[in-house]
Amino acid sequence: MTKILCIGGSTVNQGTFEKINQALHKNGFLNDWAVIIANHQYLQFCNHKKDIEYLKKFILQSHFPQKDAVLVYQQQDYPIIPGNIYILPDFLNCIYENQFISTTIKTVNDVPVIEISNIQEVVQEDLDWIGSIGSIGSLDFPCIDRRMIELSSIRPHKIAGLILAGMGGDGAEGLIEIAKNGGSVAIQDPNECYHPESIGQTASMPKAAIDMATQQNIK
Question: How many CB atoms lie within 10 A of CB 77?
C-alpha cells in the first residue's frame, strides 16, 4: 500500500513551498509517504516566464532542492513512490515543445502512476481560446479536483489531501472525495491567505473547500 499526500493550491503565500519542503524532510514524513503538488500559478508568480527550463531551475533549486523532487512534464509514466515529491505542470507551463500536456493518475499492475501524454499540437487559435476563457473550473491546470478524485478512487492505497491558498474553488470537490473514501484532509486557514499580487482574493479556494465540507458534514 502506497501512502500519497496531494497538496493543491494556486496563489499561495510567499514562502509556503519552502516551509512545506522543510517540514517534509524534518519530521521524516517522506520515509512513508509520496507527495504530489498541484499548483496553478508556479510561473505566473515567478517573474512571468513561460520556459520549462526556467521552471525546473526555479522549483528544483528554490523550493525543493533535494534530489527527491520530480518535475512531471515528460511523456511517460511516473511511478508514485514514497520518498518522492512530484510537481505537476500548471496552466502556464502545460505547453511543452508545442504540445498540450495531459495528466492522469491511475494504477498499473496495482502501482499508482502519474501518466503524462502530449495530446495535440498547439496552434495560435488554441492559445487565444484559452486566454479568452482564463482559468475556470476544469480548465485549471493542473486540475486539483481531477487529480484528487483520481487518487481517491485507487485502492488499496492511503490518500490524504491538503488545500492551500488560491483563487476560485478548484480542489474542494476532490478533497471531499478523499474524505468520503476514508482519507485524511486539511485546509489552510483562510485568514492566513495572502499574496501581494492578489490582495484579498487568495482565501477563496480554502473557503470553497470549507463550505463544501460543512455542507456535507465532513470534519
Answer: 14
Distance between CA atoms of residues 180 and 215, nearest Å: 13
Buried b (16+ CB within 10 A) or exposed e, 142-176: bbbbbbbbbbbebeebebbbbbbbbbbbbbbbbbb
At residue 155, φ and ψ (nearest 5 deg) are -125, 150
What does pTM read for this prediction?
Answer: 0.84
Q: Who's near 200: CB < 8 A, 6+ residues apart? A: none
**φ and ψ at residue 25, rounded to 5 degrees:** -90, -25
Q: How many helices (H) and strands (E) does the chain have?
A: 6, 10
Residues 167-193: tens digit of each pLDDT:
888 899 999 999 999 999 999 999 988
Cell 510567499 belongs to 14
CA distances from 132 to 78, 120, 127, 136 (A): 32, 20, 9, 11
The predicted-structure confidence for 59-108, as pLDDT tens digits, reads as follows 777 788 888 898 887 889 999 999 999 988 664 444 555 556 678 899 99
Which domains are delineated in the chain?
A: 3-215 (3.40.50.180)
> Hey, how many other C-beta atoms are within 10 angstroms of the C-beta on 122?
16
